[in-house]
Design brief:
Structural class: alpha+beta
Helix content: 25-40%
Number of domains: 1
Distance between the termini: 106 Å
Shape: rod-shaped
Strand order of the largest sheet: 3-4-5-6
Largest sheet: 4 strands, antiparallel
Number of strands: 6
Low-confidence stretches: none
Order of helices and strands: EEHEEEE
Radius of gyration: 36 Å
């Protein structure tokens, strides 16, 4: 019998040995390392997907806040008294932390002073993240 051979005695036999598996030294370690590598790569891919999802949720949240703030400012500006363009209207009172908003009115044509183009710009810090345009009419 070789040094790496494994012999198993069958029940009920007295002198006969059955050689079930031969030359298995080290294969258990290789199989274990392969299983750990597969498990590690699966966990890595799962965590990468979760990280990407968290980043995209943050970006989407910023876009939603900016759009809602811009629309709120547009409606608020339309409700204010009409002023001759060019004019900067006041911003809404409640602005989320880190954001700022401006409302600028420009004349559309020199013939009619009763209609203005409103340009609403939402900033996150110093960066412009959302621009919305609308019209204001003197009624």
């Amino acid at each position: 019998m070789l040094k790496n051979d494994i012999a198993v005695k069958l029940k009920g036999t007295t002198k006969r040995y059955c050689f079930m598996v031969t030359k298995q030294a080290g294969f258990g370690l290789v199989e274990s390392l392969l299983a750990v590598a597969i498990l590690g790569s699966t966990v890595f891919m799962l965590l990468s997907g979760l990280s990407t999802g968290a980043i995209s949720v943050g970006i989407l949240q910023e876009d939603i806040v900016a759009e809602n703030l811009g629309r709120t400012q547009l409606e608020y500006t339309k409700s204010l008294p009409f002023n001759t363009a060019p004019f900067s209207y006041e911003s809404v009172e409640v602005v989320p932390e880190g954001y700022s908003v401006t409302a600028e009115a420009t004349a559309i044509s020199s013939r009619d002073d009763d209609i203005q183009r409103l340009i609403i710009t939402v900033y996150r810090g110093e960066k412009s993240v959302y621009i919305l345009e609308g019209f204001k009419v003197n009624r």
